[in-house]
């Protein structure tokens, strides 16, 4: 490091405190927004599962394509500090746009609770997501590297600790936000009518992004800011381009072959640069199968969250929202990383097994495939339970209509004797419960709860369905000046019809008098069944992602660490595009079959990767670079030596020439 750090605390530069807090807030912002995104698409913008999943993965892919852009801007133009500031502003604007796009009141002119101009909400949210992708991806390769820059060369240990704390902050931010934003989303809010509060769920991440920006700016005076050193990525591309062109120009057999195709750049480029590019290309070649891991990994936020909406989220007295299940990932990361590092890996070493980084990554891929087999099994369980529910529904509704007809024939005038046919036949969305009342009394009854009013129900009539959340609900029934209360508990995704009997006596409560028919049973498959799939995918992440990051860093030449980081992040982008392609091409009618397809693809890719890994030889870039520098120095020494020798010889020859000429002169004079 060229500059000096002004303030240090316990041997650490004070400036990294601001960087670590910035990362925590930024990851809170990113993961918080991402946690509720797929549900926002489905329930606010009213997209179907496939479109919601496709746009979600396009967005994630974009977030991992933009790091290349951020690295180029930082290295060749603005420097890391300014790049982080400018792109964080873009990022915060994007988050604010998302929050505004989720305010249904803006276009809800008829005040029925649903937006009337969906185009406005779609366009604004897409602009917001584009700005977020530009911001989060752009700053991604800069923040960690900027943190690393704050340490001096002799602070290797501190720098390593910084990276560990940095990773913990990523997962701490992710953990908190995936707990908090789903709670905010599940609230009802609105000016004219109450709706799920997506605006607050996006608004809090927007506020956290502003906090991240302010914290980063506050630390401004303390940072070491390295000047942009020219765009190494551009140099790499130019050198590769020249090698290819030169090879093509000399394609005829008359030219002798060279050891490596990159050696064709020797005419124009430094041998050290060529050697460094060879190292990078070797690792990039190994990256080719890696996107498949991310294809599976990033479906936690889409397919798995949608799967959770069809499950039962009661954990004792605690109710878990479907999007909150994603918190299992950071919780497991925070526990598994230390366990792996201090117990599992040392134990494997003790057993005499050489568990190399590439072997770890292979095992990580297999674990992700197992996670998807678990997801498929859970899906089969859900499908089977739904079939049983449908059967129960059909048989119970036969019985129920028979019963209704009996009541109506007995009490109703002929004009009222038509049971309604618009009964709910599929599970209500978002884990809500669809509730309606049948009034068997001869007088009209009004039924209400704080969140909904079923209105005045005429004698021998049905109310409309109202969607209500899980938990205990108390209904108040009114008839004239008399009232009574009826309470019951609801799970997730059920439908009930409540019968108000002709014999109802109003009093403090009418608990015993009202009967309930369960038209659609609540979700029966418990969300806890998703824990094994989360466990396997996270164990896979620790083995694959954490090891892969370290591998990319250790195998990269000193001046191309950022290039390989960008390459590593690029595999995430490709992985997310593969979700779109496979889901679009396969179009499997059953979700469990899609999970099995993804698991099989990963196993196949894992097999190819293990063969490639077998032939990979680990290198020490620093040693190779030192060797090159030594050779150059030796060449310089040789050249110097040769030059001196030539000079001496030339001087000798000159002096001989001079002597000869002197002799000649002497002879002529004589
Ligand atoms: C929260 C998650 N466990 C994590 O650590 N994420 C990292 C790496 C992401 C790699 C591609 N999805 C992060 O930097 O957010």
Automatic annotation (TrEMBL):
From the record, give the transmembrane residue ranges. Answer: 51-72, 84-106, 118-139, 160-180, 200-224, 279-297, 331-349, 361-382, 388-408, 565-583, 595-616
Q: Matching InterPro entries, A to Z?
A: MFS_trans_sf (IPR036259), POT_fam (IPR000109), PTR2_symporter_CS (IPR018456)
Q: Catalytic activity, per the record?
A: a dipeptide(out) + H(+)(out) = a dipeptide(in) + H(+)(in); L-methionyl-L-phenylalanyl-L-methionine(out) + H(+)(out) = L-methionyl-L-phenylalanyl-L-methionine(in) + H(+)(in); glycyl-L-aspartate(out) + 2 H(+)(out) = glycyl-L-aspartate(in) + 2 H(+)(in); L-aspartyl-glycine(out) + 2 H(+)(out) = L-aspartyl-glycine(in) + 2 H(+)(in)
Any one GO cellular component localisation term in the record:
apical plasma membrane
Which GO terms are recorded in the biological process aspect for this UniProt protein? oligopeptide transport; protein transport
One Pfam family for this entry, by name?
Answer: PTR2
Record's bilayer topology term: Multi-pass membrane protein
Q: Quick one: where is this thing mainly located?
A: membrane
Listed GO molecular functions? symporter activity
Q: Does the keyword Membrane apply?
A: yes
Q: Which UniProt keywords apply?
A: Cell membrane, Glycoprotein, Membrane, Peptide transport, Protein transport, Symport, Transmembrane, Transmembrane helix, Transport
Disordered: where is this region? 634-670
Q: Which locations, inside or outside the cell, does it occupy? A: Apical cell membrane; Cell membrane; Membrane
Task: Please describe what this protein does.
Answer: Electrogenic proton-coupled amino-acid transporter that transports oligopeptides of 2 to 4 amino acids with a preference for dipeptides. Transports neutral and monovalently charged peptides with a proton to peptide stoichiometry of 1:1 or 2:1. Primarily responsible for the absorption of dietary di- and tripeptides from the small intestinal lumen. Mediates transepithelial transport of muramyl and N-formylated bacterial dipeptides contributing to recognition of pathogenic bacteria by the mucosal immune system.
* Protein family membership: Belongs to the major facilitator superfamily. Proton-dependent oligopeptide transporter (POT/PTR) (TC 2.A.17) family.
Name of the protein described by the UniProt record = Solute carrier family 15 member 1
